[in-house]
Amino acid sequence: MNCTHPFLDADGDKLREECGVFGVINATDASAATALGLHALQHRGQEAAGIIAWDGVEFRARRGLGHVAENFSSSEAIAELPGHMAAGHVRYSTTGGAGLRNVQPLYADLASGGFAVAHNGNISNAGVLREELVQRGAIFQSTSDTEVIIHLVATSRYPTIVDRLIDALRLLEGAYALIVMTPEGMIACRDPLGIRPLVMGKIGDATAFASESVAFDVVGAEMVREVEPGELIRVDFDGNVDSLHPFGNHSPRPCIFEHVYFSRPDSFFAGRSVYEARKSIGVELARENPVEADLVVPVPDSGVPAAIGYAQEAGIPFELGIIRSHYVGRTFIQPSDGARHAGVKRKHNANRSLVEGKRIVLIDDSIVRGTTSMQIVEMMRDAGAKEVHFRVASPPTAHSCFYGVDTPERSKLLAARMDVEPMREFIKADSLAFVSIDGLYRAVGEKPRVKSCPQFCDACFTGDYPTSLTDLSRREDKQKQLALPVDKVA
User: Fold this and answer.
1) With 0-12 CB in 10 A as exposed, 13-18 as middle and 19+ as buried, what is 99?
2) Known Gene3D superfamilies for this protein (predicted)?
3) Closest listed residue to residue 107, CA positions, set 69, 136, 149
4) Looking at residue 489, what is its pLDDT?
């Protein structure tokens, strides 16, 4: 199911975030609070937004393509969603593709009553489950992996909605953070490894859930705690809160890229300030990969905290040698290949008076395809930089993500095709270095990576996937079968 970076370049040379979810129960203006919460999570998904509210009699939904402000900024829009319980979603599609029919929350009338679900993550065996459900007579209305959850709940033979949801979730592989609404109340749950984030807060007598703590800041809520990996929290209309752990004990594997890039820097993730973690990554990067230079320059905005940490540790001045335009539209017209290639200059411009004649350390959060990095290095040289040294606040991204992050196929990832020196030559930098995986772990407050049982999901760096990837395995098996040679008849 999932979400996009607001200034993704034309070549897709940036990892696109997973979606954002927000829900609140026992609030006077539940849909208004949900709209505000989604606005704070807008960075997690800019393709579409949706809210469903329960007024005690029926569920009412409003969904639309585009930003939260485009769909929920008017009093008339909020008035369409009365009630004391609401849940919302901002998305970029990883599974299912674009289109209004895939905009969440999804809703269905089940035998037990209405059922609405907002999902952040990606079900890595959704294809197999979908085929089985269709063979049993299920009729799908969307192409989203989230709808598989609804059908599994609908066909479960357990008596209560909570037990039916648990029964459904036991069949899933992959990552999910869910907010579910029924006529009985709200349910929030997180996959057994806690790959995708989910936090719980309080607004007076109301209980809220969100993908990031920053959403609570906006609505005036107090963060209570993270929803634990594998935990299911049920809240009813009397304010009773029950916590269940139906999936046994597992070693958590939260996504480490939340610290690197996805979460807003003013959020907390895995018990740590994201901003402080990113500064610490810069410190580790400076210790591991020093270089003589005159200025440390971030690639804005995501490279800023790491660049501050690098500059402080290295004793090199931090300067805004690149200025970013905040007014590049999502649908900017690109009439030719030349204009598309120049996309980086619409978003970033060299601050020539600072960089001319200087030795520059450029700090960015990651390198995906490498085209944007190459263009930024070229831009620095065109502005007169004497040397351009590129430092990356994450290890090389050499593997695709199957847990709700829209990464290019592996063959298009620069680090999957090249070692560091060829990558340096490709982006035309004077030097190139990445923070080590152990340095990244230290920066986020952990001991060095435990190979036998890693503390985070870091599969995009290591290829060590924490769950089975059934749909991927089936696709690969089919490709191998198609590639088998055909014996010629003599």
Assistant:
1) middle
2) 3.40.50.2020, Glutamine Phosphoribosylpyrophosphate, subunit 1, domain 1
3) 149
4) 44
Phi, psi of 133 (to 5 degrees): -65, -40
Q: Is 487 flagged in the annotation as binding?
A: no
3-state secondary structure of 68: helix
19 catalytically annotated: yes
Q: What confidence category does residue 54 fall into, taking pLDDT thresholds of 50, 70 and 90?
A: very high
Q: Dihedral sign for Cα 383, 385, 386, 390, please.
A: negative
Sign of CA dihedral 181, 183, 186, 189: negative
Residue 189 known to bind ligand: no
Query: How long is the chain?
Result: 490
Instruction: Please say whether the dihedral angle defined by the alpha carbons of residues 89, 149, 471 and 192, taken in this order, is positive or negative.
Output: positive
Residue pair 118/87 in contact (Cβ under 8 Å)? The answer is: yes
Q: Is 458 annotated as a binding residue?
A: no
- pLDDT tens by residue, 471-482: 999 988 777 766
Give the chain's largest Cα–Cα span.
Answer: 82
Nearest to 87 by CA among 229, 207, 172: 207
302 is in an annotated binding site: yes
Q: Is 364 flagged in the annotation as binding? A: yes
Q: Which two tokens stand for residue 152?
A: 């599994």
Rg (CA), the chain: 23
Strand, helix or coil for residue 334: coil
Tokens of 321: 């040698």
Half-sphere exposure of 366 (CA within 13 A, CB side): 25
Extract the tokens encoding 419.
Answer: 């070692």
Tell me the C-alpha distance between 367 and 381, whole Å: 19
Amino acid occupying residue 73 = S
Residues whose CB falls within 8 Å of the CB of residue 240, separated by 6 or more in sequence, listed in order: none
Report the pLDDT value the prediction gives residue 2, as an integer from 0 to 100.
Answer: 38
Tell me the pairing of strands 206-210 and 222-226.
unpaired
The pTM assigned to this predicted structure is: 0.91
Characterize 379-396 residue by residue with b for buried, 16 or more Cβ atoms within 10 angstroms of its Cβ, and e for exposed.
Answer: bbbebebebbbbbbbbbb
Q: Is 64 helix (H, G, I), strand (E, B) or coil?
A: strand
Nearest to 156 by CA among 139, 168, 140: 168
